[in-house]
């Protein structure tokens, strides 16, 4: 005969569930991988549950702070393994995309998946995540906590076990590094959607002149195929090179693909499907004036797209 769960177990589960979106968002922002994020989430839950089940354990006064500390330090511990995988990765590496409905689309009542929940909380753009990869793990952790989630330096110091002055130095270095590579601006979502549609029309139609008008002179194309999907050996830079490659390759590789416009890491973007199978995710980064494309992020590694079929069916 089964017994109902003890009240303390229900409390531990409910508290963790209440903070799941925040924890997922923080960990994902530090790792850029849904799979690794889920691993750290599981470790965080096990540590949290064990603390509650410990005999004679005192009540945790600030569960949110306690959970965030476990999650952040778990993510930092995972960075070494993540970095080792990057060293042997074939071609450019891009974050695993988080896909959800466009902001003006209705959200399904049963959308409870952790990845979708993260999108409804704080999100980090594909372009910013690429820049965050150039930080040290500690710098990235401090930047994410302070710049993205608004944690004060004193609280970050407690989470990471560092002095407030050390955290301020890390925050300053990280902020200067990130802003030098990606100044703060937010293109209008409608403009981004329109530019994405025009870009795909030009690329899939092989319209070289239209591509040259759309692309910024210093545009960079990141094609993440991981050796298993469409992608290049390294990022391609320069308007002429990128436009000519797209005009010659896209009409053939994109023939028969279905396009669905969705939000990817918070930005209006495009999903490309071959039948019902995800083929690629395309995210464009625009210049501050919003007129031209300065970054093209194409994720075609099937390992990073395997979860998108289920996500698409729920939207």
* Strands ordered across the widest β-sheet: 1-4-5-6-7-2-3
The termini sit apart by 40 Å
List SSEs in N-to-C order.
HHHHEHHHHHHHEEHEEEEHH
CA-atom Rg in angstroms: 21 Å
> Which parts are unreliable, with pLDDT below 50 for 5 consecutive residues or more?
1-8, 105-122
Helix vs. strand class? alpha+beta
Report the mean per-residue pLDDT as an integer.
87
Counted beta strands: 7
Largest sheet: 7 strands, mixed
Percent range of helical residues: 40-55%
Shape: elongated
User: How much strand?
Assistant: 5-15%
Question: DSSP helix count?
Answer: 14
Number of domains: 2
Organism: Streptomyces griseoruber
Family: Belongs to the sigma-70 factor family. ECF subfamily.
Protein name: RNA polymerase subunit sigma-24
Subunit structure: Interacts transiently with the RNA polymerase catalytic core formed by RpoA, RpoB, RpoC and RpoZ (2 alpha, 1 beta, 1 beta' and 1 omega subunit) to form the RNA polymerase holoenzyme that can initiate transcription.
How would you describe this structure to a colleague?
- With 315 residues, the chain is of the alpha+beta class.
- 54% of the residues lie in helices and 15% in strands.
- The chain has 14 helices and seven strands.
- It has a seven-stranded mixed β-sheet, sandwiched between helices.
- Helix 10 runs antiparallel to helix 11.
- The two termini are 40 Å apart.
- It comes from Streptomyces griseoruber.
- Interacts transiently with the RNA polymerase catalytic core formed by RpoA, RpoB, RpoC and RpoZ (2 alpha, 1 beta, 1 beta' and 1 omega subunit) to form the RNA polymerase holoenzyme that can initiate transcription.
- This is RNA polymerase subunit sigma-24.
- Keywords: Sigma factor, Transcription, Transcription regulation.
């Amino acid at each position: 005969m089964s017994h109902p769960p003890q009240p303390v177990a229900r409390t531990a589960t409910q508290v963790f569930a209440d903070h799941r979106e925040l924890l997922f968002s923080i960990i994902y922002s530090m790792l850029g991988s849904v799979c690794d994020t889920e691993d750290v989430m599981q470790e965080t839950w096990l540590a949290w549950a064990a603390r509650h089940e410990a005999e004679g354990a005192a009540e945790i006064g600030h569960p949110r702070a306690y959970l965030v500390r476990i999650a952040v330090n778990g993510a930092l511990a995972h960075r070494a393994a993540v970095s080792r995988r990057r060293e042997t990765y074939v071609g450019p590496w891009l974050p695993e995309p988080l896909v959800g409905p466009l902001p003006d689309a209705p959200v399904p009542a049963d959308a409870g998946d952790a990845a979708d929940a993260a999108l409804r909380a704080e999100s980090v753009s594909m372009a910013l995540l690429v820049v965050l990869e150039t930080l040290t793990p500690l710098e990235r952790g401090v930047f994410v906590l302070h710049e993205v989630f608004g944690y004060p330096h004193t609280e970050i110091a407690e989470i990471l076990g560092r002095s407030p002055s050390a955290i301020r130095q890390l925050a300053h270095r990280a902020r200067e590094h990130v802003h030098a590579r990606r100044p703060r601006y937010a293109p209008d979502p409608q403009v981004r959607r329109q530019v994405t549609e025009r870009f795909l029309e030009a690329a899939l139609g092989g319209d070289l002149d239209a591509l040259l008008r759309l692309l910024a002179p210093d545009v960079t194309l990141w094609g993440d195929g991981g050796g298993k999907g469409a992608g290049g050996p390294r990022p391609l830079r320069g308007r002429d090179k990128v436009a000519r490659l797209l005009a010659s390759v896209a009409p053939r590789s994109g023939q028969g693909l279905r396009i669905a416009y969705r939000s990817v890491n918070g930005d209006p973007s495009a999903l490309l499907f071959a039948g019902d199978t995800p083929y690629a995710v395309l995210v464009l980064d625009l210049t501050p004036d919003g007129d031209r494309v300065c970054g093209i992020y194409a994720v075609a590694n099937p390992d990073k797209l395997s979860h998108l079929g289920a996500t698409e069916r729920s939207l």
